[in-house]
Amino acid sequence: MATRDMTQWETAICKVVSHDGEEEIVIRGHRMSDLIGGVSFAHAMFLMLQGRMPTPAQARVLDALLVASIEHGIAPPSMISRCFASYGTSIQAAVGGGIIAFGDRMGGLGEQLAQAMAERLGKLGDPAAIGEDRLRVEAKALVEAALRNGGRVPGYGIPLHGTDPRAPRLLAIAREAGTFGAYCRLAELIGEELAASRGGKAVPMNVDGVGAAVALDLGFDWRATRLFLLTARSVSMGAHFLEEQAQDTTWRHLRADQIAYTGREPDNAGS
Amino acid sequence: MATRDMTQWETAICKVVSHDGEEEIVIRGHRMSDLIGGVSFAHAMFLMLQGRMPTPAQARVLDALLVASIEHGIAPPSMISRCFASYGTSIQAAVGGGIIAFGDRMGGLGEQLAQAMAERLGKLGDPAAIGEDRLRVEAKALVEAALRNGGRVPGYGIPLHGTDPRAPRLLAIAREAGTFGAYCRLAELIGEELAASRGGKAVPMNVDGVGAAVALDLGFDWRATRLFLLTARSVSMGAHFLEEQAQDTTWRHLRADQIAYTGREPDNAGS
Amino acid sequence: MATRDMTQWETAICKVVSHDGEEEIVIRGHRMSDLIGGVSFAHAMFLMLQGRMPTPAQARVLDALLVASIEHGIAPPSMISRCFASYGTSIQAAVGGGIIAFGDRMGGLGEQLAQAMAERLGKLGDPAAIGEDRLRVEAKALVEAALRNGGRVPGYGIPLHGTDPRAPRLLAIAREAGTFGAYCRLAELIGEELAASRGGKAVPMNVDGVGAAVALDLGFDWRATRLFLLTARSVSMGAHFLEEQAQDTTWRHLRADQIAYTGREPDNAGS
Amino acid sequence: MATRDMTQWETAICKVVSHDGEEEIVIRGHRMSDLIGGVSFAHAMFLMLQGRMPTPAQARVLDALLVASIEHGIAPPSMISRCFASYGTSIQAAVGGGIIAFGDRMGGLGEQLAQAMAERLGKLGDPAAIGEDRLRVEAKALVEAALRNGGRVPGYGIPLHGTDPRAPRLLAIAREAGTFGAYCRLAELIGEELAASRGGKAVPMNVDGVGAAVALDLGFDWRATRLFLLTARSVSMGAHFLEEQAQDTTWRHLRADQIAYTGREPDNAGS
User: Fold this and answer.
1) Which of A235, B83, C197, D60 has fewest C-beta within 10 Å?
2) Closest chain D CA to residue A255
3) Angle between helices D91-100 and A91-100 (to 10 degrees)
4) B263 near C28, Cβ under 8 Å?
5) Could you give the CA distance from residue C213 to residue C205 in angstroms, rounded to a whole number?
6) Does residue A143 contact residue A190 with C-beta atoms inside 8 Å?
7) Which residues pair with B27 in a beta bridge?
8) Does the predicted model carry a pTM greater than 0.95?
């Protein structure tokens, strides 16, 4: 841990060249001029975060992950963003507000699963070389640890819905593209162990869970897990902001009859 | 303007179906299961915002716009995000903080240009049918109006840099792809008129300006202009957050010798 | 307008002294050690913003303004903050989220009134010397200008409520304390002119409006108007965050039956 | 944990009465009309959070805590806020941005200490009845636990400064006012034990640490600790925003010569 002022920075991500008539932005060793028109957004995102270009298969799977995360109706972040529109904020305040709304119980569970999986497999060397038996042992241990600490495995179970069609679809794409690896398999085994621990009752993987597994198999650090959701879902927050703004609503508020006051009445007021 | 509570919402963007064993997310008439693996992120973003699928050429140009906006070194939003990492916040607080930092003077200028261009051409019917002469008249009028109101045309001129290589590159891609239309041409003419008003001294279009023109030619509403920057740049904010976090810095702060106190000294204190 | 890097700052607000064994924070010429225990929060806030100590009467009125702004039930900013609690964010994300929710239509109207009033009276020299007749002329002109531009005078009228008991109470306190001046009187006259323009139908001043008038009479810049609300209401956001957290709710969301989908059905999907 | 929609809310904090010609805001059993002009901001904040009125001594100590937290020069949150001013954001975006910047390493340490202290003394019954010996045992255990887990006790030690004059001053006020209790004493003993563990080298209590102790002795929940800082420091963020805005700076950015690029050069680019 090093206390730092604002005059010394180091980065391996980007260099902005600006001298002698040359103007260029270099990203991870690639010229921006080559990237614009040369690669897709998913390619550029992969490059930014991993420092290397994805294979076409990896880019395709990242695209699938981003598309799967782009929208979920007027879910909390988009609800927040629409409320902001009705209060007359800027679009950036609305999207920023929706993004900081993500918390441990909403949008944050994928990271918890990614961390738990990465810490387990990270100790075992090359993930591609980890056998099925070992993965099952780790899956079982992960489920047991989670159930001991409060009863839930992050990334499994869908509040208010029965199943999440995004999970099997994303796994299928990863399989097709050939990026399905130790983490995706571990995620499946966790689902099996979780069902076993409940007497066979399935607790389906949700989009947070599958996103964590797919991203780890693509080589991303577990700490980046939330970013896929933030970046993709910012589109939803923006689209809903614009739609609410066009509807010209104002002042989204709770109805008085839906708020119960359980405090003291003024007649009883004392000090 | 209609005051609304939190119990009535209307949206044409998305429906979450969840009954009778059927679980599906429908986006603008398309099933999420078809979109995942079927289209790129840029396609899905276009669909979300415009309600129709882009042509491959349109998707390619949107990809180019997003890539051009994805990173600009430790520019203000990423500086903010890195500072947040050093303070120990979550990644979502850091990305949200960088996003709400966008303001009228930073990141907001593209929208101003887009609005001004859209309001002028919007009155003239089908943009494709507007002739070169008319575009030049509008460009001249737009420049004159801007110069009257404070001396700058938003989207032109690059603080601290001579030229912006992203602008000509994006225009070239739009031309190649066939999406270069009335707005891109208007933006070029604005540049010419601006130079003419300065005795021939060029004030090059910057990425905010070109982004506005390219997005309008793709059919986007001018109110969506900032979103391309917010969504794309969130990747930069995330990548810089993770890099700063890995560097384990703490408490990014200003050096005391770089702050001049110009206020009263305590010896002079009175009421 | 001057482009500035991060190495040169000037402030007349505060100096942090830290050398030769002396450690002190000087605020506007006052030692922090004297302020702690010596003055109330309202005194310190006045000092921070105006650079001089308030009179006891001024501090009392500022306290009244802050108290009047501290809470309004589960109004939008506290609703946002409670939602954040249910998503598992930090208290600072929740309070920050509620604060950035303030917009032109919610919480921002006081500033609009303050600016309009300050621009009118600012040209007329010492506010204390402006006579009643002149104030009425300005009130009439302000109302007419506002009605021309869209039909509302910011700071008057209360959505969902008949009257706002905070307004007359704050004006009474200002009168008692002797800080009731040209701005408070102007605000009253605006109310009269507004009623006259509606055939006698009163449109009562709301807390945004009265706050603007009271703060201007205390000598604050109109640009500070929103801050009284932000600072005071942060207490509400914090209190509601903690209450919601203690209720252990999770995932505050909209009910599916309260969202109407008006978009295309998948069967109709084409490109 | 209960999943909740947006139609059912319970609160003991506030009731907004609006019917039959009666309009009133009731806060914790007190009418807003009585509070305005009747109590100070610190009283109202205490009432909001604890549900009862403070004694005059308690209100005085809370005022001292808020004043001690109101400003610390262009420290990180105010630096953020000033940057936002230079980018042209609203004051609420700037204050919100500064607030969400608080993190585990900046502004968050007081809560960690408050939690650790509250969990220890909370088990021992009435804090007033806990003897000095027992407090020393707890102090020693708390220091040992903290040192085992990484070497620091939150709330002690001042980065970049030798001592913090706010800490002894606040403790002195608490003593004078008679609110100095088990938590303040525990905090002092922690300081002694911490020094002992370092061979006598003092690690002075900082404002985060003393704030935690003082607030707990006032009866606040440890979860409210950060709020005192957020609310008070919002004044600093607002004042610095307004000062920077008046200086008309634009685009606060890092100097290119202060950023070292350690990544690949484009010549070496491959995939």
Assistant:
1) C197
2) D7
3) 20
4) yes
5) 10
6) yes
7) B14, B30
8) yes
* CA A65-A71-A73 angle, 5° bins: 150
User: Is the CB of A107 inside 8 Å of chain C's CB atoms?
Assistant: yes
Alpha carbon distance A1, A8 (integer Å): 15
In contact, D4 and C86? CB cutoff 8 Å = yes
The closest of A254, A67, B256 to C78, measured between CA atoms, is: A254
Identify which of B206, B35, C87, D12 has the alpha carbon closest to the alpha carbon of residue A75: C87
A146 touches chain B (CB under 8 A): no
Burial (0-12, 13-18, 19+ Cβ within 10 Å), B116: buried
Q: What is the pLDDT along chain D (271 residues), one digit of tens a residue?
A: 788 999 999 999 999 987 766 689 999 999 999 999 999 999 999 999 999 999 999 999 999 999 999 999 999 999 999 999 999 999 999 999 999 999 998 988 899 999 999 999 999 999 999 999 999 999 999 999 999 877 789 999 876 666 788 999 999 999 999 999 999 999 999 999 999 998 988 889 999 999 999 999 999 999 999 999 999 999 999 999 999 999 999 999 999 999 999 999 987 444 4
Q: What are A250's two structure tokens?
A: 């104002």
CA distance A190 to chain B (A): 22
Name the residue among D48, A228, C73, D234 with its Cα closest to residue B238: A228
pLDDT tens string B186-244: 999 999 999 999 898 888 999 999 999 999 999 999 999 999 999 999 999 999 999 99
* Contact check, Cβ <8 Å, B227/A40: no
Token pair, residue D235, equals 């004044």
Structure tokens at D126: 């009435």
Which residues make Cβ contacts (< 8 Å) with residue B5, sequence separation at least 6? A252, A253, A254, A255
What is the secondary structure of C62-89 as a DSSP string? HHHHHHHHS--SS-HHHHHHHHHHHHT-
B232 touches chain A (CB under 8 A): yes
| 8 A C-beta contact, residue B221 and residue B126 | no
Q: Specify the pairing of strand C2-5 against strand D249-253.
A: parallel
State both tokens at B252.
């990014």
Q: Which chains touch D (3 or more CB pairs under 8 A)?
A: A, B, C
CB-based contact B127:B181 (threshold 8 Å): yes
